[in-house]
Write a structure and sequence with these properties.
Strand order of the largest sheet: 8-7-15-16-17-14
Number of strands: 18
Strand content: 15-25%
CATH superfamily of one domain: NAD(P)-binding Rossmann-like Domain
Order of helices and strands: EHEEEEHEEEEHHHEEHEHEHEEEEHEHH
Number of helices: 11
Largest sheet: 6 strands, mixed
CATH architecture of one domain: 3-Layer(aba) Sandwich
Amino acid sequence: MEPGCLIIGAGLTGATAATRLRQRGFQPRVVEKEPFVGGHVRTEWLDGIPYEPQGPHIFHTRDVEIWDFARQVVEFLPYRHRVFTRIRQHLLGWPLQVAELSQLEEWDAIQHELSELPPQPRTSNFETYCIDVMGRTLFDLCIRGYTLKQWEREPVDLACSVALGRIELRTDGYRDLFRDPFQGWPRGGYTELVERLLAGCEVTMATNADADSLGELCNPDEPVIVTAALDDFFGCKHGPLDWRGVKLLPVRHPAVTLAQPAMVVKEPDLNVPWTRTIETKWVLPELHETPGTVVAKELPGADVKHYPVPDAANENRYRQALYLEEIARYKRNPLVVAGRLATYRYINMDEAIRDALRAADQVGFT
């Protein structure tokens, strides 16, 4: 008889773990609290045009094993992600290129500040790191307002980790957002990727699973992979973790082929209520000349757990550590955590897949 394993969450992490466990000879069962699979990476279609109701997702990685793993599941189209940011009437490439900054009215102040940047940015918090990378003027123009909207916190109250690998000032003319050698977008969208990963598994939708309900969902000693947020899983026993969510408002433009210069345009101006607009159609070149597109405005502050909040005081990280101690102490079933929600980390899709494979291997070799 094949050994069983319960997986909590039918997003990318849970679905990847399910595939790996089947490869290990297990018969995984997946429970999902929502009435749909895909979690944060879910793709939807409107009149044949893709859009992402949980925000844009771009598959990029330096990990050739993860790249090969994903491409064995579905076809990936080549796609190099580019982003713009709007500063008044100017559209600048993101990350910022120094060569483009002279068009800004503040160029003299920017140039002076760039000449006085420290050799290494301070890492005490998000604000000081960004200012040390680009100077106060660019920070105020491009980052401060966006951060206040996205996180509803002063930038000085956020940890430096928010900026690491995401905030830079370029001088090399490289226009793509990511430098990873392997990048793409699944032709059928991310929902198809997750559905393929879940093929052959027993999946129960619209079912909440937490520490108190495991007695009804699995046998004693059966391993459980948790991809759900641990404050939910343990009933906020140590208090709620801070999360930020977004709401996407998609608008169909039937007579327009492409409405934006790239898939994402950031809006750092505090007078603009949304943080960015997303036109997912950019990922499918065969649709570029076809009339009709969908542009979604991303509004922050939704009551959804999309982004963990890395506060500079590390209060959330301390609370997460308390929940991880609960995982270690749990006796009825061996519990393994994986993915952005369960580990309370702001990670990319390739890291979520790596997390899932590691969790499944841990179960498979115990």
